[in-house]
Amino acid sequence: MRSLKPLRATASVVIATGLVAILTVSCAEHEPLDYPWEPTRSIQVVVPWAAGGATDLTIRVAASEIERALRQSVVIVNTPGGTGSIGTSEALNAPADGYTWASGSASALGYYPVLDMLDTSLDDWHLFLAMAHVPILSVHPDADYEDFGDFLADLEDRPGQVSVATAGTGSTGHKVIELICQAADTDYNHISYPGGSPAVTSVVQGESTATPQLASEQADMIRAGRLRPLVAFSSEPLEIDGHEGEIPPITDWLPDVHIPTDYFGIWVRSDAPEEVIETMQQVWDEYIVDSEALQNFARERGGMMTPYYGEEARDLVWESVKTDAWILYDIGYAETSPDELDIPRPE
Q: Of 37, 112, 201, 237, which is most buried, counting CB atoms within 10 Å of its CB?
């Protein structure tokens, strides 16, 4: 297994920003490979979050590599809502011909039933992971906090009053602030948005006090000096290209807090034609594993390359499913106990 290490940037990535974007590719760059499946029309990837968030940014980079391999356009369709369940449901209910894929944070596929949002599980999908993203808790540059310790003290002094913006119930940011408050035995005021990008924007504009969204969603605002990162939700310091100094790890203040890993990628229906799955596996081996574009993206945005598929990907995600499902249950957001869904509490 490859080491999952944060990377620093050496190049920038150009990101499209429309709700629907069609990515094109030059077929002359590489000799075609001998794939079992040769798509005859465009492939659609449903991104179940608003444009500009971690899923959207990651999948656009991965999709460009897939286009390069398959010599076929990949259409990104942003369908936000329901903590990602609406867009995922669209992909789940589409024809199982291999031309409609889902995407997002992989653990959501396991905890949607816990939230009673969507009847699905990891068994419904073939997972193709690309990236793991690290959350950062950031505030407006003018906020009266010297460090994360000051922020914790404010949470404790004013329980339920400090406004924290996230991408909604069950999102990475939501789980992070819940874990922080559990560890510090306090509470906060949850401000929910339909994606990571609007949650980040709310802090930039002074509508919310802090956001614990992913580094990839905050990196541009941090480099521009419009957000000030206080802490990385990790056990090691985090570096983002263009930002001076390291972002300290949360374990400097909360050494026993649990830190789950959030894997992002593309999901193909388990009942898709076998030749589609075999082709995707080849594409991952030939293009994604050593993708320079994804490596640059990871370096620029404080991410970690996680180019896994098959049983290896499922085993990694299953650990995240168990953690996330029980976090949601313990904080009172679950409609169904994970036990009833055969999701054991993590050891």
A: 112
Ramachandran area for residue 206 (φ above 0: left; ψ -120 to 50: alpha; else beta): left
For 20-133+262-341, CATH gives 3.40.190.150
Mean predicted lDDT score pLDDT of the chain: 89
Q: Strand (E) positions, 234-332?
A: 263-269, 303-305
Residue 248's alpha-carbon distances to 87, 154, 230, 297, in angstroms, are 35, 19, 7, 21
Domain residue ranges of the chain, discontinuous segments joined by +: 20-133+262-341, 136-252
Pairing mode, strands 163-166 and 189-192: parallel
From CA 261, how far away is CA 308, in angstroms rounded?
14
pLDDT of residue 61: 97
Percent of the chain with pLDDT over 70: 90
pLDDT at 5: 39
What confidence score (pLDDT) does residue 33 get? 58
Identity of residue 21: A
How far, CA to CA in Å, does 14 sit from each of 54, 158, 297?
14, 41, 10
